[in-house]
Amino acid sequence: MDKNKAKKEIEKLRKDINYHNHKYYVENSPIISDFEFDKLLSRLEELEKIFPDLITSDSPTQRVGGEPLEGFTTVEHKVAMLSLDNTYNYNELRDFDKRIKKTVENIEYVVEPKIDGVGVALLYENSIFIRGTTRGDGVRGDDISSNLKTIHSIPLRLMGNKLNNVEVRGEVYMSLKGFKKLNNEQKKKGNPIFANPRNATAGSIRQLDPRIVESRPLDIFIYFLSYSDKEFSTHFEAIKLLKDAGFRVNPLIEKVNDIEGVIEYCKKLEKRRETLDYEIDGAVIKVNSYAQQKKLGETSKNPRWAISYKFAAKQSTTKLNDIVVQVGRTGTLTPVAILEPVEVGGVTVSRATLHNFDEVKRKDILIGDFVLIERSGDVIPQVVKSISEKRTGEEKKKNIPKKCPICKTDVIREKGEVAVRCPNKLCPARLKWRIRYYASRDAMDIDHLGESTIDKLLDLGLIDNIADLYFLKKDDVLKLEGFKEKSAQNLLDSIEKSKRQDLSRLIYGLGIRHVGKYAAQLIASKYNSIDELSKANEEELREIDGLGEKSAEAIATFFATEENISLIERLKDIGVKTKEAKKDGLPLQGKKFLFTGGLSSLSRPEASDIIKQKGGIVASSISKDIDYVILGDKPGSKYDKAKKMNLKIIDEYEFKNLIS
Ligand code: IVH
Questions:
Q1: Does the pLDDT of residue 544 top 90, yes or no?
Q2: Residue 306 Cα, ligand 1 centroid: separation in angstroms?
Q3: What is the CATH number of domain 315-423?
């Protein structure tokens, strides 16, 4: 191939890829399919392979660098990275306004969310991304360019021609969804989990291997033009230019006329805080005019023309009075911190899970310690760390129990697992969870049978196992505190109704280890009845497409257990539906679906029911055997994964066609 021709094609490809990359990662509205996108990228890779000297640092093929680094080099910032002074209430904001008015008048403010992540500076020369750095001490920071390049919403080449030689500032962060997923993966691998999205971001961005960084769900908002070789007159104008140049800019940035407008904005933002998919810890208020900014100047630490307004803290310290041990549905022993009640971000917290005993050891938490508690997003309260400076010497270590705290059976710890478990299948603690699980919404969905009712039934000895539910009489239920004639009948009706639930719900409700909703549907689509399933051996089960080895093993173990077989016999006798003729020839027979994002015309449960009625299966996590990924509004990381895995993605419209 002629090199000149190749060069032209390469340039065209890069331009197109950058354009579609921006559509996808910044605007969230792709206009070509992933397949087409990948085709462009592989063509570019092909040409660059033939002509390696045509590879440039800003080529879209260069996002994930080669070998891990030995360490980061330190570089000096083009412009010092100052931090912001904080305010904590509206009067302090009014004081800020008064201070400013001593120097300048007719002030316009720009207000924006204060993103809770890691601040970085990005340098561009002749529109090409040159370098990205951490804040460091404000004067010098670490060069983390190869890590930042893996974030697709950072342009490697600026669009348009208004910004060429610039330094911009922004915040790298992790969405709440991405954070939860990352922690789930960490847990599965037995790695320590991150206490909050900011820690997860900081930990990710400082990895030496860019390939690890690439796998972390990081994103960035750009909020400040710190240097430009061209002159502009306001911050708001700069924000618009940054957006036009291809940067991802926060959509909630607003211009207001005076400090009362700022306060209104802060009130509004605090309300919106809970609905955002990323953490913010306040608002940032900036004087809009550059001329006024210049007049106001800066102190050695902070600009005088900007300030942050911080929301109420989501961290508090308190005393950890005890560590108790809870026994879960599968017998796992979980240490739980009993805390001196403390308010964290507006909620009183008196208990917090410590996840597992390895975590207690790793965080060095002792009974009697003062601990730092944090609540982030809608995540349950976490014990971040112990405050060892406050120790008196009276603190006590919590040993891993040798016996189950409920039934006193010797506990076990399987090889390679973090969890300590009570192996006694008849342990009363496990029984409680099993019944709760059986009755839960995703399983047999028994209305009016909440946790406290189950606890009362067990306490009064009215039930001893799942099947006993179906033998309850009205007189029994009336013995429970709070139950009257009507409510008792309602409960009995719901229990009766559950006899006719789908086979997949029953399988799920049995609470077999490693058999979640999805696995239960896979199994129900293969077997016509619990009897058939109970006769299947492990090998046969492993052949079910999409079912993991652990699940196959657990099912075989479940049905090899005497008590489980007799439970199923009792359920059958009392009339619980344990078979379901396979309706062959259903339109979606055996097809696997996965949702990402919200649908506009149906709720997820409604759409799931339709899929199941038509013989399809609804998955909750991504895997290579998913047939259709249904793309809704504001999709999560499953969408990115699906594209990478080349799965078929359909929108709501196509989905409705499929089911109509
Ligand atoms: S402006 C000179 N805007 O908060 C002004 N900072 O405590 C530079 N931050 O170091 C900062 N969101 O890492 C600015 N919308 C926003 C921000 C923001 C988060 C971070 C940033 C900065 C720190 C200041």
A1: no
A2: 9
A3: 2.40.50.140
